[in-house]
Amino acid sequence: MKPEIRIENLVDKGRRSFRMKKLCDKLVQLSIADQPVKLLDLSNTGIAFHGSKDLQPGQYPALLSFQLDDQTFNLNLQLKLNRVGSEYYAGEFEQLNEVDERILSRFITHCQKVLIQQAHEERLEKRRKKLEEQISGQKP
């Protein structure tokens, strides 16, 4: 069972899950009502995206495709579109079955690991460059 986390004085009532923003467009393909869209963020409970056509709040079939462990997954989902703006659309997954929920969670965890590894490598590279600059500055 997941622990319940309460945040006092929180105004935003949106999704409470980790929102994966980086890597989204590279690792995931999304179509809403058979129309490909550009994914902005993805969480265990929903998505935000740029749409290719005008959508209104309501229920839409969605296809989320991604690769995990050399296997391609195609999740057929029901999306409850609840935020419609000029810049983006956002919605929550409805009736997500247990298997799809686990697969999606594994994928997001995998992406978090990739992001953490990339951040670590970037920090190491910055340290290496700084050290090289210090060493080259010491030579006459």
Would you summarize the structure shown here?
The chain is an alpha+beta fold. The chain contains 2 helices and 6 strands, in the order αββββββα.
What's the arrangement of secondary structure elements?
Elements: H1 24-27, E1 28-32, E2 35-42, E3 46-50, E4 58-68, E5 71-84, E6 89-94, H2 98-138
Antiparallel strand pairs: 1-2, 1-4, 2-3, 3-6, 4-5, 5-6
Describe this structure in words.
With 140 residues, the protein is an alpha+beta fold. The protein has one domain: predicted glycosyltransferase like domains (Thrombin, subunit H), CATH 2.40.10. Helix content is 32%, strand content 35%. It contains two helices and six strands, in the order αββββββα. The chain has helices at residues 24-27, 98-138, and strands at 28-32, 35-42, 46-50, 58-68, 71-84, 89-94. It has a six-stranded antiparallel barrel. A hairpin with a 2-residue loop joins strand 1 (28-32) and strand 2. The radius of gyration is 20 Å and the shape is elongated. The mean pLDDT is 82.
